[in-house]
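My convention is simple: the sequence line spells out the residues, with the fold written below as integer tokens. I include a record here:
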Amino acid sequence: MSIPDLNLLVTLDVLLAEGSVARAALRLHLSPSAMSRALARLREATGDPLLVRAGRGLVPTPRAIELRDRVGRLVQEGEAVLRPAESLKLEKLARTFTLRTNEGFVENFGPGLIARVGREAPGVRLRFVQKPDKDSTSLRDGSVDLETGVVGKTTGPEVRVQALFRDRFVGVVRKGHPLCKGRITAARYAGGRHIFVSRRGLDKGPIDDALKPLGLERDIITVVGGFSAALALARASDLIASVPERHTGNLRAGMHSFPLPVAMPEFTVSMLWHPRRDADAAHHWLRGCLRAVCVAR
């Protein structure tokens, strides 16, 4: 099946508006004969005469009357698509953005982001959803606008990535815990009772790998699915939580934090989005807001 010539929509719109081949030709800067040929093509494409002789003029057929408003809307929408995007008016922007983040990110960076967005674009709503994995399907299908996290092997190759900040793991205990005093060695740290954070229910991780060459092993008492749960347990017990430092700044308020006594590489927390959002002015503005909030903390 051949693809129809969509330029004929513009021709049909003008013909139906003018009701005259001569006037339509003048408006489209065509010769009367070229316009007559275009009308013949339209008749063949639609299977309808569209305009018929009535005295000295032409009148639209019932099919043409039925198409008139619809064709007009299609042409207007097509023109809007091909027009440069209008400048973004934040004060009039009414939109909901969905952000997928790890636990702790909302608690730590959410208040600042919500406040900034509220000041600049009062009609914008932010919807935060949990991030159970690093799969990029939700970015690809458009159900999520923006995501934060560490880029992994399952991150789609087409996904856009921009670094937000560097982070590292720290140990955290309640005020008055024995580790609040004295030098924290690897042996003292490993000798405590620990909380392990794993969304997949694992009971070992990179910290345990770093302790193993030293002949040390943590005593994992419990496994939880997120950093806020780990910190809540540590706050109310003698358990030790090991969590990202910048990611959990607000959550650690009133607790004692210390650098881990084993070598652990820093990691980069980034924001991720699908390329379809690149030219979206409102999305670009939101990315700028998130960057600014993360840099400020």
Q: What stands out?
A: The chain has a mean pLDDT of 89. Residues 169-265 form a domain with the D-Maltodextrin-Binding Protein; domain 2 fold (CATH 3.40.190.10).
